Predict the 3D structure of the following.
Amino acid sequence: MDRELVEAARKRDRAAFADLIRIRGDRLFALAHRILRDVDRAEDAVQNALVIAWRDLPGLRDLDRFDAWLHRLVVRSCLAEAKRERRRITNLHVLPIDLPMAGDDFLNVDDRDQLERGFRRLTPEQRALLVLRHFEGRDLTDIAEVLGIPVGTVGSRLHTAHRAMRAALDANARVIAVEGRPA
Amino acid sequence: MTRNDDIERVLQQWFTEGPRHMSDRLFDGTLDRIDRLPRGRLADLQSRLPAMYLNVRLVAAAMVLVAVAGAGLVLLNRMPGVGSRPVPTPSPSATVDPSPVNRYVAPGFRPFGFGTTGTFSATVPLDDVRRVAPGSATTDLQLVNPFGPEGSSWIFIVSGIQPSSDRSLPACIPAWTGAERTPTALAAWLGTFTAIEVSRPQPVTIGGLPGVVVDITERPDASKVCGVYRLSDGPRIQLLGGGSSLYGASKLRLILLDRGDGESILIDVGTRYEPTWASVDAAMSIVNGFEFRR
């Protein structure tokens, strides 16, 4: 970790903080996008988290925990954004997808649609847990540190999230079987 | 589809898809918001003092005491006149008064964090792209807006301003095609934005540097022109890289000054939540007191 940059940013060095954002911005945005599944909301969540980070950084005692702390801020910001999203759900509209696809054809269009719909059925906390685990590849201890919960709780919640995802996919599969295609 | 015991592998695969890069607008917008955060001087001092050596700390403490005592004396001397001083008329061709202390503070428009006294001459390093606060080297000068919440008015300065690199709204943010980033060229480019209303550039001289001044507001139908771009607090159009953005219901006065080397200095005077230009007009009395030195 670039400890010198963190130390400088903690002392209100704006250029150092800008460098920290440049270095970590892509990863934070990708994390937020996987949780929220929306570019604009992910940008809002990351921006809010970074503004809070700048505000509260002077109070961070252990600089070695900067990354975990920053990820925690982003995840919390995503959870807050997701709750707002639920309230505004009727205003959602579909935007053209301009995203890179995986190299192989492991997931087809129906698979992705099922995953998308199943994922949206999960609670924001469950989504965050799955993204930290399967996108960032964090182990349970890391996830516990980011989320600020005990390791045992992470394990049980992860199990529940997997089960919820399977159930959501099963439910979608039933809908598709009845209707013939996704609604 | 593949499910059951493969759910973890499926999720892993699915998460690899999707955008992975932070946009320039997110980067610039974040710094923009950070720079506009109201900041207390004590918080700054608390973070800086531990890094100083003891003798430096003692000197700094002594200087602070002297400054506070001096400010108190000045304040006491000036109290009978507070509020009775006429508001200076903003003048696009104002000349610079070499005595900068306090005389440019208009009633009802006092600098946040500086009390009612302060030095507003700005020493701008013309070769750097950085913001400076008049009289210090921290951030932009936040101003108390009598018409809005704290921090809703500001002045900030950027040396070496660039056109916006935000290409997220191509329908309303035209691409920059100019060569030299002179005040006239930048003002002309801003005039081609479809979602904003820009006044005709007027000549101005601030701190001995010539330039132009334009007033900018958002068109009422900006969202329709640009498509909805939503940040947490409303539509936002980035005008100039590294700084100036127009938020919904905000008013900007951009003063572009000629550095003499094909680049421009920007003084961004802005206000939000205010139905008139009163705060911006009042802030001009401060801006007219800026001095620039190489």
Q: What stands out?
A: Helices of chain A lie at 3-10, 14-36, 39-56, 66-87, 109-121, 124-134, 140-147, 151-179. Confidence is low (pLDDT under 50) at residues 87-105, 179-183 of chain A. The radius of gyration of chain A is 18 Å.
